[in-house]
Amino acid sequence: MTFDTIIGHKQQKNILLKALDSQHVAHAYLFEGPDGIGKRMMALAFVRTILCKDGTGCGKCHSCLKVDHENHPDIHLLTADGAAIKIAQIRSLQQELSLRPLESHYKICLIDGAEHFTNGAANALLKTLEEPQPGTIMILLTNHPEKLLPTIRSRCQRLPFSRLPKQQLAIMLAQKLELDDTTATVLAALSEGSFKKALGSNRDLFLEKRPKLIQSLSALSAGSTIPTFSFADELEMEKETLTDILDIFQSFYRDILLLKHNRPEEELVNLDLLEVLRHQNDLTTSASLLVKLKALDSARFHLQRNVNRRLALEVMLMRIAAA
Ligand SMILES: [Zn+2]
Questions:
Q1: What is the CA(157)–ligand 1 centre distance, in A?
Q2: What global pTM score does this model have?
Q3: Which of 35, 144, 236, 293 lies deepest, with the highest CB count within 10 Å?
Q4: Residue 129 Cα to ligand 1 middle (Å)
């Protein structure tokens, strides 16, 4: 992972490169922003350059290779042990940091998911942040900076990251996954600027399963309760991806609304299903689309609160079918 291969986040990249150039690397950074948009990639590119034997992140020296293989002895990766980052983990990290670096001039610690500190862990870490050892660099990554102690936040140099614009992500996906422009744009729109979603298991959901899900959804009608219940069956099994499926349904109805209001096609998400969208546009009214969107919203609300999933899905689909 090098700075050159990172798409977007230009400003953040420049800040880090400038710190390297001027040898003013802070002793603690807080990379904050939504999940899966490249914070960790940026952190690894930064660390690789810091530790590289010729200072460029060459990718060839033994130091760069060890960073890439995540086995550099001077880098300590910390993530939640179960649900939380515990005080014992911070204590053993502090033990590590008190030793001399083995192969470089730095001891670097990367804490991924910094929002998961227990109170004890956060307070213990605060000590390390308050009295930084020379040569120690801490990089905290979080998608919920508001969950960190204000005292931790204020002792780090904060670097906010935002989602990549749809077009930028689409270009990257088209290259990386060898997709045509339309498919890449659809995937980018559904992934909401998240590499993790676009490159991970969601890719199959967004590209392969989506047309079928939308077809089943638009086939529902008020008179046909059996298909409604069997579709609820099908959705209930999708535990991991259910919220993403609801996002897909929402994007579908939103697209039809946009068509109704003669918005330009590039605003649509499901660009590859234009015919289906146009057909549905002829069949439905704005009022009915708004009811369907409301049904999705309310299902999302209930599912987040761990109500009976099955019931929430049935009610949602019945309201959609009847609208
Ligand atoms: Zn190198």
A1: 25
A2: 0.75
A3: 293
A4: 28
